[in-house]
Each structure stands twice: as structure tokens, then as C-alpha cells.
Design a protein that fits this description.
Layout: E1 2-6, E2 9-11, E3 17-24, E4 32-39, E5 42-50, E6 56-58, E7 66-71, E8 76-81, E9 90-99, E10 104-108, E11 112-116
Parallel strand pairs: 2-11
Antiparallel strand pairs: 1-3, 3-8, 4-5, 4-9, 5-6, 7-8, 9-10, 9-11
Length: 118
Amino acid sequence: VQLVESGGGLVQPGGSLRLSCAISGIDISIYTVGWYRQTPDTPRDLVADLTSGGATKYADSVKGRFTISRDNAKNMVYLQMNDLKPEDAGPYYCNAERVTTTSANDYWGQGTQVTVSS
């Protein structure tokens, strides 16, 4: 299983970025997929996730600015980030998780860096 993030970079405050995560080796249509951010002071915090049924969850700090989406046919996950703030900066990690009564699978990408600075 491989998750490869892309789309990070340097953006000015108020700008936008679109992160992409290409996933191979699993059928993401049956997984919850998500984006997490790591800071020097905290472990990986949830930014947004999207269940196989289409339910979304967002961190309070990004509600109304970020949108998570998926393309099951392409095995891709996206995070559209608008109105970026300096506090949004950090490495962003793509995650795919599936928990059943008999198994648990949890996969991570290597991360893509987002820098928000003028």
C-alpha cells in the first residue's frame, strides 16, 4: 500500500492550495480517508476526514475554509485549502483507515509541507 501526497508549497496568507493524495494497493471506496497536520508541539491532529459513506469531519479551525474530497475511481483524495493562515502551516499527511470487527488497517503517506508566509 502506498500513499503519496503532493501539492504543498509556499503560499501567502489568504492564498489557496490544493493537496492531492494518490493511493495504491487498496480500494479507497471502503476506507475513511483523511488529512492530518503535525506541529512541533502536537502529534498529528485531524484536519479533515471523509468516510466511505460520505460523512465529513473538520477541525474547528478549518471549517468553512478547507474541503476534503475523494475520487474513488482514481483512488485519489484531495484537500482544498482556502484563505490560508500562518497557523495552517506544517507537514500534512494523508491517511486511509478501515476498522471492522475482525481487522484494522491504517495507512499513512510521507507528508507534504505547507508554508504560509508573506
